[in-house]
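Risk register update: the risk of archive-format incompatibility is retired. Evidence:
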Amino acid sequence: MIIKASHIKAIGLFLGGVLFGTAGIKILSSRDAKKAYVHCTAAALRAKDSVMKMATTVQENAEDIVAEAKQINEKRNEEDAKSAIENEAKIDTAEEQSKPEE
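Archived output:
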């Protein structure tokens, strides 16, 4: 049986993968790696807290804007209603003045 170069290459790649995988598992489960994971997780949690604070601030500002806009619209509606009543009164007065006396 003759072993071809392509078979030797495939076996070599397989053994290299097994060796690299075994070393990788040892490296990833080492104390230093765990320490790095903890620090990365802590940084991610700090970033999350910062984003949540910013989102809360934006939401509060949006609520303030909506409340002020509602006040403006209520004031405008009151002024429009008052103006409509005044216009009706003017029209009624004009109609009464334009009626011929009987």
